[in-house]
From TrEMBL:
Keywords: Amino-acid biosynthesis, Arginine biosynthesis, Transferase
Pathway: Amino-acid biosynthesis; L-arginine biosynthesis; L-arginine from L-ornithine and carbamoyl phosphate: step 1/3
One annotated Gene Ontology cellular component of this protein: mitochondrion
Catalytic activity, EC: 2.1.3.3
Keyword NADP: no
Family membership: Belongs to the aspartate/ornithine carbamoyltransferase superfamily. OTCase family.
Gene Ontology terms: biological process: citrulline biosynthetic process; L-arginine biosynthetic process via ornithine
Protein name in UniProt: ornithine carbamoyltransferase
Database matches in InterPro entries: Asp/Orn_carbamoyltranf_P-bd, Asp/Orn_carbamoylTrfase, Asp/Orn_carbamoylTrfase_sf, Asp_carbamoyltransf_Asp/Orn-bd, Orn/put_carbamltrans
Keyword Lipid biosynthesis: no
Amino acid sequence: MSMFKVVQRSYSNMSKGLKHLVSISDLSTSEFASLVDRAAYHKKLIKSGEPVGSEISDALKGKLVTLMFSKRSTRTRVSSEGAAVYFGGHPMFLGKDDIQLGVNESLYDTTRIISSMTSCIFARVNSHSEIQQLCQHSSVPIINSLCDTYHPLQAICDILTIKETFGETKGLKLAWVGDANNVINDLAIAALKSGISVSIANPEGITMNPTILEAAKLVSEETGATLETSHDPKKACKDANIIVTDTFVSMGEEAQKQQKLKQFASFQVSSELTKLAAANWKFMHCLPRHAEEVTDEVFYGKNSIVFEEGENRLYAAIAAIEHFVLPSK
């Protein structure tokens, strides 16, 4: 497992007042809560059907919003482009086959050029080191749209979904049944910042990144929410209000598929597992979903909020642009 220190925004361009969204660990508890609240605000505004004011619709008028994606995407691409259009910007998608990056040009050169022409960069990349380099060399905000260590937009979306469903987040329990990956790395911190206790179950041989556990301990001391880890899905799901899982084979791990499926054989979220949860339990998954991760009965059942969760990716992206890209009033 890659080991990274929690990024503390020590990039050289921070002296210019530039802010990047790298991980939830970088955000204060109040800053993260504000992002969730603003996502909810913009969702309500859009759902009302009323036209938004020019202060929103013209905020990025005449400006590019770049989506620099090295990985396939559905929700991230649609939500990021939708958020750019909401503020009047023009989204430009740059996939791995669209630009010279990695072929005839270095990441440094590409970052310097693209950031000189755009208002921000949504970056969906392979390694966390790529996000760090982008932040170091970019002259505009970088919004981490997924790397191998973090997925902050998903965490904002997930807490928004939980808050909408339960009304209040403080005192809830979230169970994670699955891999020690980028999604839980940010979701665990986001949940703790929201007063939600977290119980993580990973298969034998898989453990959480110590850097994440260290960050979680600090947040727990602040909010009183707790984090526990084990290799027992039943223990994690006991009295849980929210049960979450994700892909067992992440992009880039295809060669390990058979080994990982064997390792995760007893980790499918089924109705038997959910019987251990609290009476008001809900199921979440960031999608795309595979049958080995969760049964149809749970995924499409009345307790599933996966499609509401997916829609909320749009409002998370909108909140991120507002907070990190638009000039402060």
